[in-house]
Every structure is written in C-alpha cells, then in structure tokens.
Amino acid sequence: MTSTALASEHAPVPVPLIVDTDTASDDCFALLLALLDPRADLRAITMVQGNVGFDQQVHNAFLTLEVAGRLGEVPVYLGAREALGGGWVGAEDVHGDGVGGQRRTNDATPEPEHAVDALVRLAAASPGEITVVAIGPLTNLALAIERDPSFVSNVRELIVMGGSLDGVGNITPAAEYNIYADPEAAAAVVGAGFARLRFVTWSPVTLRDAVFDANRVARIEATGTQRAAFFVRANQAPFDFDTAHGAAGSTHPDTLSVLAAIDPAVVVEEVPFVMTVALEGERRGATDVVPANPGDANCTAITLADGELLFETMLGILSR
C-alpha cells in the first residue's frame, strides 16, 4: 500500500453539514470555513431572514461561494423572509450591507425548492448523519419541525449560534439578536426534543473566545490573498461597531459554530442546561438557562472555546 493510500485511509470522514444563515460579515466567514475546510462536507446553504435585507443576503451568499471557488457546487435555498409572527428586525447598523460594498461577478441563482422543504428532504434522505449549523434566526428550523416532526430525529446534531448564558444581550440589554429576531421560532426549536442541541452563545463565550483584535486582522491582511482581502473589507463594519461598543475586536460566533461542528478540539468546556426563551415584556428574546444533569437538559452550551485555534484555522483558510 502506498503512503498516499495510507494517508487517505486514516483521513477523517468529512462532517455532512447544512448551514442555515442570514449571510452578512461573520456568516460569510463561517461559510468560507464550511466551503474550504476538508473536514466539512457542505451539502446545502439555506437562507433565512436576518442581518440585512433578504436580497442582499442572497447576493452575499453567492459572492462568498465565488470567493471560495465553489460556485455551482453547493446549492442555495431561499427560506423565510419574515419571523413566525411576521416582520423583520435587521442589523444593518452592525453589518452595513454585510460585505463592505463588494459585488459578485456571477449571475448564479438559487434553487427553486423552498429552504424548509430542502431541510426536511435532506435530513430524511440521510437520517442521523447531517449536522445543521444555524447561524441566523431560527425561523426555517421551526418551520421544518412543523412541516415534518421527524426532522428532529433525522438531524444528527443542531448547533445554534444564539442567546446568552449570563443575561447579556447585543440588541436589547437581555436579548441576543438571533433569538430576538424570532423568539417564537427559538422557543419551538428549544422545546422540540433534539437529541443533540448545542448553543454557541453571545455571552460569555463569544465576547471572550471568538474575538479578532486589530493584530489578528492585520495578520490576515498581511497574507495578501484575495480571500484575506474579502475578509478585511467585509469585516470592517462589524469591527468598527464591536470596538465602539466595548469589544476588543470583531466578534466571530458564526465561524466558531461551524468549527465546533467539524473540530471537537475547539470546544474546551461544554455544559448541559435547561433553556427557555422569554416571549413577553422587556426580556422578550432572552434565554434563561439553568445548569442540569445531562438526562434532564434540553441542550448544551459551549462555555469555553479555544480562541487561538479558531483564529489559526481561519488564518489558514484565508491565506490560500
């Protein structure tokens, strides 16, 4: 047997992924990781209402596929344009247009199938195999559960970027954006009974472990690649916003969420919780968590992550 065959024999099997996203800034970088890391087998990108206008999000997804050199290889499905209860809460004050004014040169178009139907179909076709990484509001996921309750058991693992463990929000004092943008959807997902439901929260883990300061951004820029230039420009608006509001740099919880799906080493500590979502009053969209025994918990949350591994992984991806 050749050395090449031996290496192939021992190579890890890529993790089948679907990324559900409201594509802007860190969502784009999370997609680059899912598209370019050999440990990820990205089966689909599903789009949900969120950070910026829906059509802009679609543009950003196809621009990211272009930057990754993966156009035409990974299908894009369009999903919910409004929250379950109607309306849309954007975050353009944070992201601008999500890509720093960069424009795609391709005319690629999404698939005709609705994102919710695609989620249900893909999970049913590979029961117990696919990890869904939800890095936007949870509207599509809640609709998939409603459409087909067996979706819950067909999904191997659902990783959600959302919520906080300590009551610190980023859109209201108590609520994190992805949960606040559709609290009813978040409540439905939390209560659905996923066997493996994991959260990457805003606080404390993102604010402590998923921050790229000016030195890290400069190291990325210094690689001089097209992908690095794309990152720096798309990252500028959130970097400016985050640092103006007390963070040490730009925050990258979406990228951390994808990395957690494909590299267990980035998770230093994870704790089981019972989580509920506040649906009324000033705390609407807040996540309330109580530590629990694994058998009583409805989710786990990463409480400590390896921020240096996150950065070095992205530096490697962007330097190609």
Question: Can you walk through the features of this model?
Answer:
41% of the residues lie in helices and 18% in strands. The protein is built from 14 helices and eleven strands. Helix 2 (26-36) runs parallel beside helix 13 (253-262), helix 5 (115-125) crosses helix 6 (139-147) and helix 6 crosses helix 9 (183-190). The two termini are 31 Å apart.
- Which series of helices and strands comes N to C? HEHEHEHHEHHEHHEHEHHEHEEEH
Helix percentage range: 40-55%
The chain-level structural class is: alpha/beta
Major beta sheet, strand line-up: 3-2-1-4-5-6-11-9-10
Number of strands: 11
Instruction: Give the overall shape.
Output: globular
The rounded Rg comes to 18 Å
Largest sheet: 9 strands, mixed
Low-pLDDT segments: 3-8
Give the oligomeric state of the chains in this entry, treating copies of one chain as homo and distinct chains as hetero.
Answer: single chain
State the separation between the terminal residues, measured CA to CA. Answer: 31 Å
Q: pLDDT average, as an integer?
A: 96
Strand residues, percent? 15-25%
**Total helix count?**
14
Furnish the topology, listing elements before pairings.
Layout lengths: L2 H8 L4 E7 L4 H11 L3 E8 L6 H15 L7 E3 L13 H4 L19 H11 L5 E4 L4 H9 L3 H4 L2 E5 L15 H4 L2 H8 L6 E4 L1 H8 L1 E2 L1 H9 L3 H19 L5 E2 L1 H10 L4 E11 L9 E5 L7 E7 L1 H12 L2
Parallel strand pairs: 1-2, 1-4, 2-3, 4-5, 5-6, 6-11
Antiparallel strand pairs: 7-8, 9-10, 9-11
Helix pairs in contact: 2-3, 2-13, 5-6, 6-9, 11-12
Which key terms come to mind for this protein?
320 residues, alpha/beta, nine-stranded mixed sheet, two-stranded antiparallel ribbon, 18% strand, globular
